[in-house]
Amino acid sequence: MIIAIDGPAASGKGTLGKKLAAHYGLRHLDTGLLYRAVAKRVMDAGRRADDVAAAVAAAKTLDPAAFDEAALKTPAVGEAASVVSAIAEVRAALVTLQRDFAAKPPGAVLDGRDIGTVICPDADVKIYVTATPEVRARRRAAEYRANGRDITDAGVLADILKRDERDRNRAAAPLKQAPDAHLLDTTHLDIDAAIRAAIDIVEATRAGRGRD
Ligand code: C5P
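Above: the input record for the complex with cytidine-5'-monophosphate. Below: its predicted structure, written as tokens.
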């Protein structure tokens, strides 16, 4: 089974993806980490995030096994990731890795921006997760503060609004809900309720299709 989860920044896709994968015994890929890793390598090389040659070279030589998640999950890397991810050649260089991951038995949960639309258009279940920008900012800021980062809700809100705008309006694989994706709005749900709602979607979809 392949489950595609897409949605805007800080919508909770990663947490949902991880929990759904554990629930169904599937593998999980947070595809945002791929773009973050490309951005981090470009930054570490002292290049600008819109340096196409540097970004494409980084994308072609990524080693997901060597990712340092904490170093990738910073606001600065997220911002740069949103710039490198608008480069069509960067996206093209990462397609095979993502599709191979999804295709390996017993299947996988992938979360990102274009999983249901571009990477796995035939996914068994597609979920588009969202919440109001204010709620997303509040949750992400609390996470950052719990990890010792000094940041305000307003600062995170500005960051995610800018990224969402760039991700929605780029030409290459823009963020959008696939026509056959189920909308999951978590604005008024805590994490346990969001997971229950996601499992309900998976179960209803499988029952409707009569597939495993
Ligand atoms: O999901 P996360 O916030 O970690 O993603 C960082 C950035 O990577 C996003 O703002 C987006 O620009 C990009 N991204 C993407 N396609 C994906 C996953 C992430 O363009 N499938």
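Notes for the reader.
The longest helix spans residues 191-209.
Strands lie at 2-6, 27-30, 108-112, 125-130, 182-185.
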